[in-house]
Amino acid sequence: MPRKKTGDQPDRSITSSQGETSIEYARPDLDRENRKGVPEVLLAKGKRHEDVLGIAREFVDRGGRALISRVDDNLLIKLQAEFADCSISEHHPSRMVVIKRHDYLLHSTGGRVGIITAGTSDVPVAEEARIVAAEMGCVTHVVYDVGVAGIHRLFEPLKALLEEAKVDVMVVAAGMDGALPSVVAGLVDVPVIGLPTSVGYGLGGEGVAALMSMLQTCSPGLTVVNIDNGVGAGATAALIANRMARARASQI
User: Fold this and answer.
1) Is the dihedral of CA 146, 147, 148, 150 positive or negative?
2) What is the helix (H) or strand (E) element at residue 24, kind and residue range?
3) Tens-place pLDDT, residues 191-204
4) Where in the chain does DSSP place strands (E)?
5) Beta bridge partners of 21
6) Taking Cα atoms as reference points, which of 131, 241, 130 lies closest to residue 190?
7) Angle CA(155)–CA(173)–CA(88) in degrees, nearest 5?
8) How far apart are the C-alpha atoms of 169 and 239, rounded to whole Å?
9) What would you measure as the largest C-alpha separation in the chain, in angstroms?
10) Can you tell me the distance from the alpha carbon of 62 to that of 11, in angstroms, rounded to the nearest whole number?
11) What share of residues in the chain are helix, strand, coil (percent, to 5)?
């Protein structure tokens, strides 16, 4: 689990016995990472920019880092101005932003996560999963654009993930017919997390066909998150990988 070095920061809100804070419009779960091993990710979509700035400030002041998803260009400009004294990583094409105080330390856990996409249109959601896993201390390995329409592209990269990177778990993102996660799950001996994306059109479009295909899989070892839920896929993958890393460490 990432550990943080805290400096002297102003107390801008009331802290409960559970480590939560109370501000006028939100109750950010500041203790989630210590409690679950998964940091809270602030979803910007649907929120006022002022509220996102305030919640992000709470996370940065209290814990040294804020993870924000689905950030539009106007909000990004405001975040850069508000947190000019911090390190801000803007991740395209996922639209995720990671803000860190300069005294924040992210420690590697030893967990290893593989991220695969069927096509380049699936990359934004897959990158969301990758960033979350990386911010949970995992090393991530990506293989993009190896879908079933050209299945020959999959085998060598998949072999490298298993034999060279030795990943503990794989996230496989696919839209359209959503077939790739089932194919991968039928070939590997590690858990696979199917990540349906809202890529597609017509009957079953916007990820519906991909989701249903993954849920109907006959390949054992495949679990599925909701459409475009890169955060959930990345968090689950990192939990698995980090537990595997602790098991490896205990055998040394």
Assistant:
1) negative
2) none
3) 999 999 999 999 98
4) 14-15, 21-22, 41-43, 65-69, 87-91, 96-100, 112-117, 139-143, 169-174, 192-196, 222-224
5) 15
6) 241
7) 115
8) 10
9) 57
10) 8
11) 40, 20, 45
pTM: 0.86
Q: Are 135 and 67 in contact (CB under 8 A)?
A: yes
pLDDT tens per residue, range 4-36: 433 333 333 333 334 555 577 777 777 788 888
Rg (CA), the chain: 19
- Phi/psi region, residue 82 (left: phi>0; alpha: psi -120 to 50; beta: rest), is alpha
What distance lies between CA 200 and its chain's CA centroid?
Answer: 22
pLDDT tens figures, 111-160: 999 999 999 999 999 999 999 999 999 999 999 999 999 999 999 999 99
Q: Are 35 and 1 in contact (CB under 8 A)?
A: no
Question: What DSSP element (H or E) covers 233?
Answer: helix 230-250
Backbone phi, then psi, for 228, in 5-degree steps? 65, 20
Beta bridge partners of 141: 114
Task: Give residue 46's region: left, alpha or beta (phi > 0; psi -120 to 50).
Answer: left
What are the structural domains of the chain?
A: 14-100 (3.30.110), 112-250 (3.40.50.1970)
